[in-house]
Amino acid sequence: MTAQAPERAFPVFGRGAHRDHMLRSWRIGLRTLTNPDTGLPFTEREIAAATAERARYWSEAEAVDLVLLSGEQRAIYLADQVRMDRAASSWLERYHGGLWDDAPLPASGGSGTASAVATVGTIFHGSTTLPDPTAVQATDPAGKRYQVLYSVTTPAGGTASPVLKGIDTGSDTNLPVGTVLTWSQNRPTGAAEKATVAAQYTGGAPKETSAQFASRLRSTVRHKAASGNDSHIRYWARRATTAVEDAFVYACALHAGTSIVCITQKRAGVLGPAARIPSIGTLSDVTSYLVPPGSPVVPKPPLILVVPPVSQSSDLVLAMSMPVGVSSGWADLIPWPEQYGGAAATITAVASQVQFTLTVPASSAALPSGVTAPGLMVWDASTSRYEKLEVSLAYGGHPAYTIQLSSAPTHTLAMGDVICPDTARRLLIAQSTDNYFDSLGPGELVDLSNDPRAHRAARFPLPSEDYPLRAGSGVNTWLQDALGASLADISLESVSSSLPTVPSDPTAGPALMVAGKVGVYPL
């Protein structure tokens, strides 16, 4: 029997298929012949013995099958190399990369602001050329080097906010808030020896993987890049730095001969809804590569403006049917609290980090009788993660309850925080929600229904082809795929915002739907 592999242009035979075909032909042939020893036709017993496993004819057929199979595997391998999504790394880079004059992008360094104490008027000299021996540089505790991008003067108050970008590269240059930096080169007179990271550094990414390179090449093949068309601008923007996840082009969004390019950034291990918003360093790299007259690839006269998307939070309430009292589902036998009508249970007062008031929807179920320490978790909107709460006591009257914790959580509890019943699948649920929102792209820059620029300023690539822009029930599919059989059913009960708004000024950048507060409750 032959088995046609998916998308193969030729039949592919499994192990033993050729051997069985040869043996079957011999059996049919032997039935037409006479046994010279008996003068009678070969019996079925004699035929079976002649073609039995390990017999002479079987061994010959087995040897032929192995030879043909090895040749077939070579053919399959070579056939795979003409497909970008199947090609080995060497073929992808040398053959396909050579055809399209492209190669995997090198690693990039993270960037962000620092808080530097210095005498008022002290100047931190910067440069967008990395590395620049005249610019101020710093090192992190791991010895990674960072350079000030733009010169900044210390204002009144004695604290400057220089922007630094990693000279060294990789996702470990995405420094968290509070990381201490030591000025290592050209420290200005009047500046303290050390500075601290003021905001999460992003944009640090490893060398482009084969899968990422193949994806970038496929988009180039799908939409031919030529003569400065939208695909060509997108192609250039994605080549600027490996930190760029993708680029979205809005032609003539301002006037004829203009293009606004919105870029999203690879997450590269950074948590939170803002991870895909490009850092200043990433924007600087793309702008330098894409905007004439300094661009090495785009000639004058096009007017190109590189912008980041603007985060637009979307709060979700999901009802999920999972087993109870087990690690594959809800932690408690009676998961509590519940949602009602798409309303989540939230913190309405915070007495301390170990005591707060939880208000549940008025029409939802009360705290189960006899339960004094329900399993709860809180959604941290800054990291898009759940954290388990160590509940020691819950008491009060429906719908408001006082929750006492045995220890304060890492997340700082605040009014409006969403509280959910605890589950051991909390990390998987949060990661799947992240992945869903990461699959979305920015919205439009102009009103496609009423603006006269709509026919030329619509987003490229179209949302129907890549990166849909609307948030909604698609999250259900991502959670079902991630949780598998442990999720019997799921329903999106409410979504606060599903469609990105159109900015009043196109230069502000399009809106991008990101995860806001996500509550999960029993269905």
Question: Can you describe this structure?
Answer:
This protein is of the alpha+beta class and 523 residues long. It has 4 domains: 80 residues, no CATH class; 127 residues, no CATH class; 87 residues; 172 residues, no CATH class. Helices cover 23% and strands 26% of the residues. It has 10 helices and 24 strands. The strands form 6 sheets. Strands 19-18-22-16-17-21-20 form a 7-stranded antiparallel sheet, with helices on one face. The chain has a 6-stranded antiparallel barrel with strand order 3-9-6-5-10-11. Strands 12-13-14 form a 3-stranded mixed sheet, covered by helices on one side. α1 packs antiparallel against α3 and α8 packs across α10. The longest helix is centred in the first third of the chain and has 26 residues. The radius of gyration is 31 Å and the shape is globular. The N terminus is likely disordered.
